[in-house]
From TrEMBL:
Pfam families: ASCH. SUPFAM superfamilies: PUA domain-like (SSF88697). Residues 38-168 form the ASCH domain. CDD domains: ASCH_Ef3133_like. InterPro entries: ASCH_domain (IPR007374), DUF984 (IPR009326), PUA-like_sf (IPR015947). This is RNA-binding protein. It comes from the Bacteria.
Amino acid sequence: MSNEHAAEMPPLDLASAAQMWDDYRQSCASDPGDYVVEYFGDSPALADSLLREVTHGQKHATSSLENEYLAENEPLPQVGSHWIACDGTGTPQVILRTSEVTLRSFDQVDAEFAYAEGEDDRSLASWRREHEKFWKRTQQADFAKQWEPAITSIPGERIVCESFEVVWPRKQI
């Protein structure tokens, strides 16, 4: 995750996301509720790379910063909530359902969670190195301040550790 990832993101295709959601909702026995539409990462290349790890790799967790939700006045993910993950063009590809959410400080993120994120070599050392670089780059640009791991012990600055499963499209058996 280097500075070449800091590129303009294209608009999300909300109409296609709504159609995907409608198809998914019709397949459910009960109403799945609402959804959000998002990318992984902060550039088209990173969005594509991380989404590929979800669809063809071992990625079934992600992390974000609590202050990003607070700044946008958005609720934190909840167990059972859904989000539609888009590729680097803004096209919806999969629907994910959140299966676990924990708020942790940087030093509380463990090797098991780092492994579940499925990135790089899946080690905790790699997770810490790459996420620190990413958050320093994005937080400094978005909030005009330098992000540091130590601040994540403060409520409002913690790391949102989210586990998920792909629920649509359904895998063919």
